[in-house]
Specification:
Length: 136
């Protein structure tokens, strides 16, 4: 359960820092347009902090980790997908603010991050399904 708390806490810290980064880099560059940096803060707080706080409550209620390796796979796959997605959002957004082109590779890697994130969510729901009793 501690690793779920630590994950939520880490995403909270990085989420707040990303909001500060967005504000400061756009201010320093006098940027007023749209950029993907604006959604990094939200992704980290919602898909990182809030999601893991919910998983922590579900772990307490249903002991999700009792499923064993499936829970471990969910945890690491989901985190990898979220980190990859957020990293590409940050890179693409930063390049936009700096007035540089981001290539197709960045969009492709961001798409891969979303796919990995989706696989993590599927693993989560399989894990949850195995721990919820048939007759509630």
């Amino acid at each position: 359960m501690k690793k779920l708390l630590y994950a939520a806490h880490t995403y909270m810290i990085v989420g707040v820092i990303s909001g500060l980064y967005y504000r400061e880099i756009t201010k320093l560059n006098d940027f007023t347009g749209d950029t993907q940096l604006g959604v990094v803060h939200t992704h980290l707080l919602a898909l990182g902090m809030l999601f893991f706080l919910i998983v922590l409550a579900l772990e307490k209620l249903f002991t999700l980790s009792a499923v064993g390796k499936l829970f471990t796979w969910f945890f690491w796959v989901y985190n990898a997908g979220l980190v990859l997605t957020v990293a590409m959002l940050t890179l693409h957004g930063t390049l936009t603010v700096l007035g540089k082109e981001s290539g197709a590779a960045i969009a492709g890697i961001a798409g891969l991050g979303h796919i990995v994130l989706t696989v993590g969510l599927v693993l989560f729901f399989i894990t949850l399904g195995k721990r919820i009793p048939a007759k509630a």
